Amino acid sequence: MTAHYAVFGHPVAHSLSPRIHAAFAKQMGIAMEYVAIDASPADFASAVSAFATVGGRGANVTLPHKERAAALCSQLSERARRAGAVNTLKRVGLQWHGDNTDGEGLVRDLTGRHGLDLRARRVLLLGAGGAARGVAPALLDAGIQELWIVNRTPEKADALADALGQPDRVHTRYLADLPNLGNYDMIVNATSAGRGEADFKLPFRLAEARALAVDLSYGEAAIPFLAWAQAAGCEPRIDGLGMLVEQAAESFAIWHGQRPETDEVYAELRAHADALHTAD
Ligand code: ATR
Hints:
Blueprint: E1 3-9, H1 17-28, E2 32-38, H2 44-53, E3 56-61, H3 66-72, E4 75-76, H4 78-83, E5 88-92, E6 95-99, H5 102-113, E7 122-126, H6 130-141, E8 146-150, H7 154-164, E9 170-173, E10 184-189, E11 207-215, H8 223-231, E12 237-238, H9 241-256, H10 263-276
Parallel strand pairs: 1-2, 1-3, 4-6, 7-8, 7-10, 8-9, 10-11, 11-12
Antiparallel strand pairs: 3-5, 5-6
Helix pairs in contact: 1-9, 5-6, 5-9
The structure holds 2'-monophosphoadenosine-5'-diphosphate.
């Protein structure tokens, strides 16, 4: 029987997840259907229960529903609980279990695919929404030295820092403090500010020479921050396409018990993105 899987988002029509999971299912010889379901914030909970009613076995959750998804789960993995955000739902009996594979996906992409060493880094994390919450615990577990969280709404940065529970390594600052923060050897953009804005205005001196710059978005949404990072002298500069593929592989493993190979799918998507100069 074909099992039912989906990605919930808003908007979600251009999500690459259906393509990635179709490739994984083919590779592993598993029959599964994976569709994109657009649900507004107000409709998210009812859309997820309607999906369960028609036999939904698992789902990915993307922007802007990751924190909302955590609230629907009767059980959360340790990393989802620490993140306060869920990107992977698994149906167990009549309940949803929630996990978060974003952080693992990011760390695998940076350390595995790109061969980077994250240990001892002084990291600036821009944003404190679902995406930031998903990756922060994994960055700490990967051995970074300090995490500085800056968010437009400072209360959300403080809430994330509290949830991480490591006051010796995790600090928050106001957006207005950025010019005085010194410099970082890793800067992660986890805001959605690139979507729809031409400019990314940050002081160049935030970046140490050859700082690692990472945007959790990909395609057009990643362009403003990565253009800033180039002007600031960051090297390497990495978008979220590899993380997307790696988090998908982790989700696939949660549902099916086997982790697919990611290199081929990543190479295909990267070639396509480069050809278009955008990918979404
Ligand atoms: P996601 O799941 O992608 O994290 P989200 O939970 O809606 O989506 O979070 C979006 C993040 O981008 C938040 O940190 C948001 O800041 P606020 O918490 O102050 O809303 C940030 N963000 C969005 N647009 C922004 C902008 N124009 N400038 C700065 N930060 C922005």
